Amino acid sequence: MPLTESPVETLKPAPRTMARISSGTFPVSRGYRLRQMLYNPWSIPRYPNNASGTSGMELDGLDETGLVDSDETPDVIIPPMPFDDAPVYADTIDLSAVAFHQVWGGLLTPENIAAQVHTNDIRYHAWVAAMKVVEQDRQSRKERTPRKRPLLDATMDQFFVELSLALLDLCPGPVIVFVDPRLHDDAAAMVDRARHLVALFDKANVRRWRVVVTLPATEDGIRAAAVLTQEYSIQTNLSLVSCLPHAAACIEAGAKMVTMSVGGILEWYEQQQKPVPKVTVDHPGIETIQTCVSYILLNKLNATLMTADIRNWTELKQLSGIGGAALTEKQLDQIPMRTLTTWFPRSNDTSRSTINARAAPYPTRYLESKQGFLMSLLPASCRSLVSAVLYVRLGQMKVWMEEIEAVVKDELKHRIKLTKMDVIGMYRCKSWVRRPTPTDADRKESSTGGLSRRSSSSSLASSVSGSDSEHHEKVRFPSDCKGTATPLIEGVDYF
User: Fold this and answer.
1) pLDDT band at residue 34 under the 50/70/90 scheme
2) Distances (CA, A) of 284 to 99, 260, 336, 346, 351
3) Three-state SS for 105?
4) Integer Cα distance of 382 and 345 in angstroms
5) Nearest by Cα to 454 from 464, 465, 445, 466
6) Are the C-beta atoms of 27 and 83 separated by less than 8 Å?
7) What is the pLDDT of residues 80-126, one digit of tens each?
8) pLDDT > 90: what percent of the chain?
9) Which of 234, 257, 395, 439: disulfide with 228, CB 3.0–4.6 Å?
10) Half-sphere exposure (CA, 13 Å, Cβ side) for 21?
11) Is the pLDDT of residue 410 over 90?
12) DSSP-assigned states of every residue in 299-324
């Protein structure tokens, strides 16, 4: 039988692999992603044009090599990158760790200061602060100038400034310093303390853009942030923000940064739901934070959202488009490239967080309301979340502030004692000088009762003893200076 040739099968092209659209925040640098894209063009996320009816995974007019077809013209020559670097702030005051990791900025909190306030490195800055404040107080008393604020409050502010200056020497970016959170219900006091802190930075020749003042996101804290931003041009960071209406009120006040506690928000949702939901993009806590991020990006607001209190990297990888992250020393050790890259949400994103962000009203009018808007105008779920995240944390901060204040107060007391010590009187009253013992000639003269006839030897001895007695009369003994002697302080090395 003749062999019949089988019909030639039509070779079908292999299905085109769609480039996956990434999302989240990862510990890699933007330059690393750019090199990956140049090496492999297929790693570039493909976004659709408005006229395209595809599923949103590739651009019209691009061939297999990623180049533009000749019959179509792209909307833009260089498309915007869908990712960018996210600044890293060191949530630690370990200066050696900050210098090693080369982060963008530093974050001071009552928690990280209280954790190391008893170390020698941190107590040194407390000693410097006490010395400067006491010296300024002495100078003002000489000039008869009234004291502007209590010594302890002035020393606490100077202590925070000294720590911030040490961080500024190690970081190219700003340092985020905080106002005493125990003043969370007094807007006027927070404004006064923030202005005093910034004045100390101005005195140290620190530029304003490198100083951000943190206020608790209570109602008084939000109003204080509005005053500091509008009247004094001071950059503020409102911390412990918990939900979208809460964040909208903070942004309305003109806050430069809004900090959300990732761990606190997720823990509250995990306590409300059983079983505990997995940490994915569908986690209600992740959706709440992502809604605030999308709200800022969609409305193109001049504010950034920073994440803090991150429990693990899985939580950070679910968040896209964040403006920064505060990482602890342990988390900094786990970053291979000392930076983060965050992917922006897609323009055609249909997730619940993006839908909620688009439906949120903008601009808001919370600050025009009467006192008590934070708990009266927010939904019931938001009020419960604010109470759990904000006010519980403020109670913990009170304990940490008391621990810091005890150390600073101890250094201040010690410095005041040293200042009041009469060092000159202490050196004049030499208690170790022995009284001179009477000589034989003195004994003979006293026994004879002052006879007129003396030998040449006795006259010479008397003249010598007379000169010695004149010399000893000039020496002051402890019994002669009881009123001027200053008691020694135990533990002080005077010599």
Assistant:
1) low
2) 37, 14, 30, 20, 12
3) strand
4) 24
5) 445
6) no
7) 567 788 999 999 999 999 999 989 999 999 999 999 999 999 999 99
8) 55
9) 234
10) 17
11) yes
12) TT-S-EEEEES---HHHHHT--S-SE
Structure tokens belonging to residue 208? 């304003």
Which residues sit opposite 238 in a β-bridge? 215, 258
Q: Which residue in 218, 247, 224 sits closest to 236, CA to CA?
A: 224
Cα-Cα end-to-end distance for the chain: 120
Residues 288, 243 contacting (CB under 8 angstroms): yes
Once rounded to an integer, what is the mean pLDDT over residues 286-314? 95
Token digits of residue 431: 């208690």
Tokens coding 374: 């934070």
Instruction: Indicate the pLDDT class of residue 31, thresholds 50, 70 and 90.
Output: low
Q: What distances in angstroms separate CA 458 from CA 54, 468, 470, 471, one per listed residue?
A: 128, 15, 18, 20
Q: What is the pLDDT of residue 360?
A: 94
Q: Tell me how long the chain is.
A: 495
Structure tokens at 377: 């105008």
Q: What's the rounded Cα separation, in Å, for the pair 37 and 442?
A: 106
- The structure's pTM equals 0.75
Bridging pattern class, strands 236-241 and 257-261: parallel
Nearest 5°: the CA angle 125, 129, 131 is: 115
Cα torsion through 104, 108, 109, 114, rounded to 10: 120
- The DSSP-derived string for 164-202 is HHHHHTT-SS-EEEE--GGGTT-HHHHHHHHHHHHHHHH
233-242: average pLDDT: 97
Instruction: Say whether pLDDT at 454 is over 80.
Output: no
Amino acid at 363: P
The tens digit of pLDDT for each residue in 199-215 reads 999 999 999 999 999 99
Whether 149 contacts 78, CB under 8 Å = no
Whose CA is closest to 225, among 239, 206, 209?
239
Handedness of CA 396, 398, 402, 405 (dihedral sign): positive
Cα gap 226→239, rounded to integer Å: 14
Which position has the token pair 């900025």?
105
* 88-90 vs 324-327, strand pairing mode: parallel
The SS3 of residue 343 is strand
Contacts of 145 by beta carbon, 8 Å cutoff, 6+ apart = none
The pair phi, psi for residue 328, each rounded to 5°, is -75, 175
